Structure formats: structure tokens, C-alpha cells
Amino acid sequence: MFQSGNLIPALTSLDQVRLPLTFDRYADPRDPRQLLAEVGMANKADRRPHQLSGGERQRVGIARALVTRPQLLLVDEPTAALDRQRSQDVVALLAREAHDHGVATVMVTHDHEVLHQCDRVLTMVDGRLNAAEKSSV
Predict the structure, then answer these.
(1) pTM of the model
(2) Going from the N-terminus, what domains does the chain have, and what CATH number goes with each?
(3) To 10 degrees, the CA torsion angle through 113, 116, 117, 123?
(4) pLDDT digits over 49-80, tens only?
């Protein structure tokens, strides 16, 4: 999952979320419309990327990443373009995916306000990975 969303300009938000299903015929897909609703984008399903804000594009990208029920998510700054409440909502969604569906999730973030929702937190300072600061579950 990319920080910028990496959306295809010609596709609507709904088509962006549906796209991975054309490549993974063995997927047990989630409902693309429901995923857009979960990230607060149901009312913009017919919009193209140029009609969305950076945070909206980011949320469409998150829905697209979840549609095939992946086993592993690598997430780069999922809250970078979001306000505080949306940031909390998005990280809560990722945490639910991890806990309810067994999705292993590795998230890189500078947003310290969402860390309480993470099971394990590692920090990197001056290029060195530090020991776990938090562990739960």
C-alpha cells in the first residue's frame, strides 16, 4: 500500500478497488463498495483521482489493498494525508484486518498518535532499529 495511492487516472474510485480482482481470480474478494464505505469514500465511488484530495486518494488505495483479503500488508505512511480522526479510523481498520482476518501488517509511520492501536512498535533512530517499545495481545 503506497503513501500516494498510486491510482490509475482513468478509473473511478470503485473501479480502482475492483481492479485487483481482475488479476487474482483465486481471491476471496471483499465487497468493493463496502470497503469504500469503510474508508469513508462510498459517496465518491464515481470520482476519478483528479477529483479527489490527497487523503481521499490514499483511502481509495487502502480499500484497493484490502479487496483481495491479503495475507500480508506493507503499509507506507497510511495517515500522511489524513486528518486526526481519519487517521485513527484507518489504523483501526488495519488493526481489525490484522486481528479479525489474520492479516500480517507492517506499517511505517511518523504519526505517533496512532501507535496505541498497534500490537508492536519498533523505532528507528539514526538508521538503527531499536528494541520493541510496546507489545500487547
Answers:
(1) 0.82
(2) 13-135 (3.40.50.300)
(3) 80
(4) 999 998 899 899 999 999 998 999 998 888 88
